Amino acid sequence: MTLMGSLLLAGQFAILQDMMAATVTLMPTADACLFELDPENNLGASTHLAAGTIRTGQRSRALYRFDLGQVPANAIIQSVTLTLRVVITPPGGPSSTFGLHRLLKSWSEGVHSGRRGGLAGASEVTWNSRVHPASQWSSPGAAAGSDYTAAASGSVFIAGNATYPFISSSGLVSDVQAWASNPVTNFGWILVCQAEGINQTARRFAAREDAANAPTLVVQYSVPAAAVAISGHVTYYNGVQTVPGVTVGLTGDKTEIAATDVGGAFSFSVSQSGSFAVSPSKLAETPPDQGVTTQDIALIRSHILGVGPLDSSLKLLAADVNASGSVTTLDIALIRRVILRSADSYPGGLWKFVRSDFTFANPSAPWIFDRSRSISNPTSNQPNLDFIGIKLGDVNATWTPP
């Protein structure tokens, strides 16, 4: 497989950038109870909130809202666990499953306390109103499908007094992800007993006013590490031309390919944590003899005969078209085949690339050189990862873009 093919294949399965993981534990910023027994009462400051059905058949539902300001807007939510504590269980009350549903409309907590609260004042939530008295629920007690989602985001089977975690689920994660990304949609959850038709399923759950037993929301999330740009240019070895259409491969902790633009520029966005390598290649060109003429053959012949040595390391690399580590008449024969169009490349391809800051240990024998650049844990943009391009056979550096 060619380098291009390998990079394309690898790019399809590129690994994710490193993430920075974090966990936050949150207390409710608002909680309240919808209490059918006293439908105009508010219980926004009670130390415990009712949910379920009492022995006379009236229902209750609890509301919870958490401020996710500690979670970055670009966070990727990994897990969500809400923990509630039952503090009062009616004697003989049957156990049942309680579900958390995402609320679709806003509500106001209120300031009334006690087992049955108090008559609601302005802008307080009740069984009948989400913001008393101006805004009612779609139906008393809030309606599935219009005031809250019909499907529960999470559920747990609840018996007697104990602590109950709503274990992370796709629904809970989805809710918190939506709220973190778009806080104006965060109206919290409503806790609904899934057996409201059965009396004495009601339980009293500790509210945020009961500090020792208050609800907690544990959110685990990750944030993509900040990205930086690594970029550069490919310039022809005459120092004048830029080289467009060069395939530049990024490998290491991220795999990607790019092509240099008309100005010879390329760029990649990478994580600040990771190791990367950048390597250019140009396997084909039309016409293949662009920039290569019989004049180049004459110059190489003079070099071989010792009457006109090639005077730079880069010219020597251009002359060694078969990558043998020497300049011989075989190179001349191969160049002639390309000029005559009986071949469209050389054994090692049409181009060589050298990193722009490379210093040859032996300028008269420049056969070992750096073809790539490596960088680890870049903390800022790296704009000068430049390379020099050499069209093989063009020893007088007359190549121009076709």
Offer a few descriptive terms.
402 residues; eleven-stranded antiparallel beta sheet; rod-shaped; Immunoglobulin-like; 2 domains; mainly beta; four-stranded mixed beta sheet
What does this structure look like?
By secondary structure, the protein is mainly β. It is built from five helices and 23 strands. The protein folds into two domains: 19-224, no CATH class; 226-391, Immunoglobulin-like (Sandwich). The strands form five sheets. Strands 1, 2, 4, 5, 6, 7, 11, 12, 13, 14 and 15 form an eleven-stranded antiparallel β-sheet that branches. Strands 19-16-23-21 form a four-stranded mixed β-sheet. Strand 4 (48-53) and strand 5 form a beta hairpin. The radius of gyration is 36 Å and the shape is rod-shaped. The two termini are 27 Å apart. Residues 1-18 have low confidence and may be disordered.
Tally of individual helices: 5
Would you identify the regions where 5 or more consecutive residues have pLDDT less than 50?
1-18
Series of secondary-structure elements, N-terminal to C-terminal = HEEEEEEEEEEEEHEEEEEEEEHHHEEE
Q: Number of DSSP strands?
A: 23
Q: Can you give the helix content as a percent range?
A: 10-25%
Strand content: 25-35%
Mean pLDDT: 94
Distance between the termini: 27 Å
Radius of gyration: 36 Å
Class from helix and strand fractions: mainly beta
- Largest beta sheet, briefly? 11 strands, antiparallel
Tell me the count of domains.
Answer: 2
Mass-distribution shape: rod-shaped
